[in-house]
Design goal:
The complex is a heterodimer of chains A (294) and B (361).
Chain A (H helix, E strand, L loop, with lengths): L1 H10 L2 H30 L3 E2 L5 E2 L5 H6 L2 H34 L2 H12 L6 H12 L4 H8 L13 H25 L3 H9 L4 H30 L2 H7 L6 H11 L3 H26 L9
Chain B lengths: L3 E12 L2 E12 L3 E5 L6 H9 L6 E6 L2 E2 L10 E4 L11 H11 L4 H14 L15 H13 L5 E5 L7 H18 L2 E6 L2 H7 L2 E6 L2 E6 L1 H6 L4 H6 L3 E11 L4 E5 L2 E5 L11 E7 L4 E4 L9 E11 L2 E8 L4 E7 L10 E5 L5 E4 L5
Helix pairs in contact in B: 2-3, 2-4, 3-4
The chains are: A mainly alpha (294), B alpha+beta (361).
Chain lengths: 294, 361
């Protein structure tokens, strides 16, 4: 590659210019994506040292450890949470994105802005806002008690539902935008044609609109499911130490236990699991638009 | 009322404060081929959408087979549409598209299969069942759209400029085929076009539309030979419109005059009185041009040849009159001794001049 780059400097024809233009991207990808991946893979087969660091000795122990009930449970927990989150996001986000595409241009812009504004602040900081809402005698508790819906504080902070809400809050926009972008391309005259041919509005939705916006829905699912497997700071902030996900486990092993090889092994397994998920989605949907995500 | 399969009764519709349909009424007989003819933006498509139920009128009623369906959903009307852009479902095969309405009715498979193959045979697309719409040419998509709409055996088939996207040759061929299909199926067709030739060629009746109203409804011959208004005369067969004042009137003929000369109208359609303002339509092919020098005393309009052009098998000669208005005369064939700048006298056979824009005519 380096040799070719030098040759290109001398020739400078159009193919070579294109090659030179993407060269930095190659270098970047190699240094920051492929390199670390290989490093992580190698690391996951090494042993941890007694005190700090690693010993260059090959072992399968890290992978065997994952099958210990404690860690296995964490994986199952994460999976359950990711599925719950994704389903809820689908239920909220699909109609949201779908109807947003039906709005006229002026309202589309406004809605878009409303969804984008929170992105101007770090999601970490925004999550602290949820602490104020969820904590015992916080905004939510006070409101519910003032309305006589509950008598005692619910103490929602550091519970499973709080984590789910946090996940939905952070990941929902991804679903909305991917559904929106495919609903936007939907030709509404097709829905009218279906109605004209005898479909009720429900039938027209399921046979035409849903089928044609499926690529958006599925890429939304991929965009929300994968992060929800790995996001650790939401469970950290809103779940305390009560909800431990794979992401938290990796972070703990890396930062607190300093067991780098085990953290690497956990990451590799998580990566394989999500890749399998994407592969299954691709097989089910046979949608080419997902290719860019893999 | 039972005699008519489709009736529109004083339909009004506005979009954002702009009145698109302005008291539209129409009665269509069973098996009729009726064309709504008008320029784009005159409300044709809106009318069709109201019949299909895709749009609700602000006021007025729609009757199908004598039944008020104004507030019925589109899927509850036995009316199908061939959309302008065909609106074929891109994720379904040709078979899937055509069988869509039958599958909704939950007919059994064998019946559906038979109906689909019959519909494909009808539009001469046998063997295309498994193709996707994206693999078809424009003309083939058009045929699939028609098959999809007729397979449901609608009482009325609505066609929204179905031939607009096709090239001229294919359009001519499809005109003949559509007419044949309509005869064969006996379905009432409501056809939209802005192409007067198409309308004259295919329709049993033509409804000429302007600004959300019907200007004239009649057989192609009526509309062509006896246009009621100058608008119809111009739109159907591009007639020349001449304004003048009645100069000599009797039971059968009207002689009128404007600053360019004198003209004659054969039929006194509405008891024109002396001195009354009249509007006269003369079709370009009926206009005779005589060089002025040879016959300077002839009664007729005087003008100067301004331009000659040859298009569509017709030679068009544009004559500028003294008042700055222009008349178009057309001939078959390319030869004419007239050259731009020649002074000519414009005449026509009195029976070819039609009085239009008459109040109450």
């Amino acid at each position: 590659m380096i040799k070719r780059a030098f040759e290109c400097f001398r020739q400078l024809n159009i193919n070579c210019v294109a090659f030179l233009a993407v060269l930095p991207l190659f270098v970047f990808t190699f240094m920051f994506v492929i390199g670390p991946l290989i490093y992580m893979l190698v690391l996951s087969f090494l042993q941890r040292a007694e005190v700090w660091g690693i010993v260059n000795k090959f072992t399968f122990k890290n992978y065997m450890d994952i099958f210990e009930p404690v860690y296995l449970k964490t994986f199952i927990e994460s999976f359950k949470l990711a599925i719950t989150t994704t389903i809820l996001i689908m239920i909220i986000g699909y109609p949201f994105g779908y109807f947003m595409a039906k709005l006229d241009a002026k309202w589309k812009k406004r809605m878009m802005l409303l969804i984008f504004i929170p992105f101007w602040t770090s999601s970490l900081i925004r999550l602290y806002g949820w602490i104020i809402i969820f904590r015992a005698n916080g905004i939510l508790d006070k409101l519910l008690m003032a309305l006589n819906i509950t008598e005692e504080p619910l103490k929602l902070l550091y519970t499973y539902p709080a984590v789910v809400v946090g996940m939905i809050y952070v990941l929902l926009p991804f679903m909305i935008f991917s559904v929106y972008s495919s609903a936007e391309k939907l030709d509404w005259s097709l829905v009218e044609a279906a109605r004209d041919l005898g479909a009720s509005s429900m039938q027209a939705f399921f046979t035409i609109s849903l089928k044609l916006t499926l690529p958006g829905l599925l890429s939304g699912v991929v965009l929300t499911f994968i992060p929800s497997m790995g996001l650790f700071f939401i469970a950290d902030i809103l779940g305390g130490n009560k909800v431990v996900l794979v992401g938290n486990l990796i972070q703990e092993q890396l930062m607190k236990a300093h067991n780098w090889p085990f953290a690497a092994a956990l990451s590799v397994v998580l990566m394989i699991l999500t890749s399998v998920m994407i592969y299954i989605y691709r097989r089910i949907s046979n949608v080419k638009e997902l290719e860019g995500l893999v | 009322m039972e005699d008519f399969i489709l009736q529109l009764d004083r339909i009004e519709k506005s979009f954002g404060g702009v009145k698109v349909l302005n008291g539209l009424s129409l009665s269509v007989k069973q098996g009729e081929f009726i064309t709504l003819l008008g320029p784009s933006g005159c409300g044709k498509t809106t009318t069709l959408r109201i019949i299909a139920g895709l749009e609700k009128p602000d006021s007025g009623k729609v009757y199908l087979e004598g039944k008020d369906v104004t507030n019925e959903e589109p899927n509850r009307r036995n009316v199908n549409t061939v959309f302008q852009n065909y609106a074929l479902f891109p994720h379904m095969t040709v078979e899937g598209n055509i069988s869509y309405s039958l599958r909704l009715k939950r007919l059994d498979r064998a019946k559906i299969k038979k109906a689909v193959s019959e519909a494909l045979e009808l539009v001469q697309l046998e063997g295309y069942e498994k193709r996707m719409p994206s693999e078809l040419s424009g003309g083939q998509r058009q045929r699939v759209a028609i098959a999809r709409a007729v397979v449901n055996e609608p009482k009325v088939l609505l066609l929204d400029e179905p031939l607009g996207a096709l090239d001229l040759q294919l359009r001519r061929q499809m005109q003949t085929e559509l007419k044949r299909l309509q005869k064969h199926l006996g379905i009432t067709f409501v056809y939209i076009t802005h192409d007067q030739e198409e309308a004259l060629n295919m329709s049993d009746r033509i409804a000429v539309m302007r600004d959300g109203k019907f200007e004239q409804i009649g057989t192609p011959q009526e509309v062509y030979d006896y246009p009621k208004t100058s608008y119809v005369a111009r739109f159907v067969g591009s007639a020349n419109i001449i304004y003048g004042t009645a100069y000599d009137v009797n039971e059968h003929t009207v002689v009128f005059k404007n600053e360019d000369g004198i003209g004659i109208v054969a039929r006194n359609r509405a008891n024109i009185a002396y001195g009354q303002k009249v509007t006269v339509a003369v079709r370009s092919e009926h206009i005779r041009l005589t060089p002025a020098a040879s016959d300077s005393n002839a009664e007729g309009f005087v003008g100067v040849v301004k331009e000659k052009s040859f298009a569509g098998g017709l030679l068009q000669i544009i004559v500028a009159l003294a008042d700055g208005k222009e008349l178009v005369a057309s001939r078959h064939g390319i030869d004419s001794t007239l050259v731009p700048g020649d002074k000519v006298i414009v005449t026509w056979a009195p029976e070819n001049a039609i009085l239009v824009d008459l109040e109450g005519a």
